[in-house]
TrEMBL record:
One of its GO terms (biological process) is signal transduction. InterPro entries: ANP_Clearance_Receptor, Peripla_BP_I. Residues 1-17 form the signal peptide. This is Receptor ligand binding region domain-containing protein. The keyword Signal applies. PANTHER family: NATRIURETIC PEPTIDE RECEPTOR 3-RELATED, PROTEIN CBG14864. Keywords: Signal. GO terms for molecular function: peptide hormone binding; signaling receptor activity.
Amino acid sequence: MLRWLTLLSCILFHTNGNFVEDVGAANQPQYPPPPPPFPFNVIVILPKRESIYDNFGMTLQKAMPVIDIAVQEVVKSEKLPPGWINLTYWDSRLYEDILLAERHATVGVIQAYCEHRLDAILGFADNYGLATVTKVTAGLNGGIPILTTSGMPSLLNSKKEYPFLTRMQGSYRLLADSMYQLIAYHDEDSVTQANSSLNYLNLIFFYHDKRRAVNRVINQDESQETGATSSHCYFSLYAIKRYFTEKSKTFKREWALNTPQFPFDEDLVIERETFKQWLREISLQSNGKKEGIKRKKNQAGVGK
Ligand SMILES: *[C@@H]1O[C@H](CO)[C@@H](O)[C@H](O)[C@H]1NC(C)=O
Ligand SMILES: *[C@@H]1O[C@H](CO)[C@@H](O)[C@H](O)[C@H]1NC(C)=O
């Protein structure tokens, strides 16, 4: 299993560079499969079309040529015989509904499993589908390897829950580490060689997130959940928060009860004046003895 995983990550890493070169070549040449254990059955789970839920614009259409080239490379370099892999492309239908994409992805995986064609999983444009499938498939056939270019939230760091997940773009933890080096206040007891940080202590997270947005429309029926999922911005900032509190006693203490934050929904109409008022408010919260910073993920709402 591990050998497959290493090989697959190698080929995918190697072909990362020449991405859009060959969009037409999505058809696999049909070779008779070599004797068992071939073919190696891989399911690729991605949405067919782009949508607002798809943060990185990942689609089957875009991934297919990359995978095809990788498969050909393996044959060309005589690492494995022609027909070594059987790819199944599965539409997660993320563009229809982010809350149901999780289900579609899982159904695809279960189907492949029942047909005894589940050796590895590639893809995922949404973290919810990825999390669910990864959790469950760790218990099938002794664990199914999953390679993905998404899955950056720190939630997925847990090797206990997601033992077979390989994230090819790293995780937000790396981002958090850079932020820590760059802006965080470094107290005496935190181990840092170069104290070249800006040493900001009073930080506030100002970000787009429908679920927590201060300007969200409150439902009449309070018991009704909005159903909105957490945003990309939320996950990246959450990783920063976690990293800071892990690394520094000061931030752990400062943010113990609550982390200063101002989530808003950038898709709603926000008056210019309102936005100004928000900025004023957060600037007050982030000023202090140490100068604060404002993290702004997106300003799309301004001036609409
Ligand atoms: C390859 O997978 C498809 C389903 O995607 C299946 O119908 C076909 O039988 C498989 N071929 C082999 C040789 O396993
Ligand atoms: C790093 O620099 C800041 C301000 O320049 C200072 O308050 C802090 O004590 C320094 N930390 C260490 C570990 O030297």
